[in-house]
Amino acid sequence: VIIGIFMFKVVASPLTEYFFLLEKTDIVSSLLFAVIFELFIYMNFCGLSLLIYGIFGVLGYRIPLNFKQPFSSANLVEFWRGWHRSLSAVLKILFYKPLRGKFPLFVALMGVYLASAMWHGVTFNFLAWGVFNASFFWLTIQFLKRKFNKLAFVLMPFTIVIGRLIFADSDTDRLIQKLSFDFTNFDAISSILNTPIHSLISLLLGLAIVFIEISFRNARVMQKRNYKYLRTPKMLA
């Protein structure tokens, strides 16, 4: 419960101060906003999920974790297995299994991600997000089959950040401008530094949590991917 409140209220909520970056189209601002928005979505949704998980636990009911440290993953396949697991389970039953029984893997993945895209909204950016993620999920599987594990790991943050850039902006013209990667008007850093101090602290805390999950993903305390590292006195033992 405490971890959920911390992630939702202390880390996620102050990050809304950075949402002005959505309006900017240069590459630095676009990528910074994508990273910050990814942090916001993760801390907000994961925090609420952990809060609910904790409350049910206090009442004597054990429910599945909806997030399982997705940033502790070694590749994109593991990442999505740990992200919003309740939705993933529904999509797997309703779309993946029926499609996989009749079509090749790529078609099945495309069907799943397009269904997920339409669950979020029927706009160009969500559909583009679905196609983008399905393609890179399939590419990751091909890398793993060929034992290109390091390439799969490098591909993961790239796909997450660019995918979130696409996901975040429903203004099609502005999104196309962002994806043209404009290398002018780099004022995002100074704008971020001028935000309230509590937002800067929240940003650093969010980045630190993700950094720990990625950097120490093989540590014993991380193995079950249940946020034990945030609730044990002996950190990263």
Percent helix: 55-70%
Main sheet specs: none
Termini distance?
23 Å
**Total helical segments:** 10
Low-confidence stretches: none
Principal-axis shape:
globular
Secondary-structure element order, as H and E? HHHHHHHHHH
Which key features would you list for this structure?
globular; 237 residues; mainly alpha; single chain; 10 helices
What does this structure look like?
By secondary structure, this protein is mainly α. The chain is 66% helix and 0% strand. The chain has helices at residues 2-12, 27-58, 76-82, 85-100, 105-120, 124-145, 149-168, 172-179, 188-193, 197-215. It is globular. It starts with a helix and ends in a 22-residue tail after the last helix. 33% of the residues are buried. The mean pLDDT is 93.
Question: In short, what is this structure?
Answer:
The chain is mainly α and 237 residues long. 66% of the residues lie in helices and 0% in strands. It has helices at 2-12, 27-58, 76-82, 85-100, 105-120, 124-145, 149-168, 172-179, 188-193, 197-215.
List the helices and strands and how they pair.
Blueprint: H1 2-12, H2 27-58, H3 76-82, H4 85-100, H5 105-120, H6 124-145, H7 149-168, H8 172-179, H9 188-193, H10 197-215
Helix pairs in contact: 1-2, 1-10, 2-7, 2-10, 4-5, 5-6, 6-7
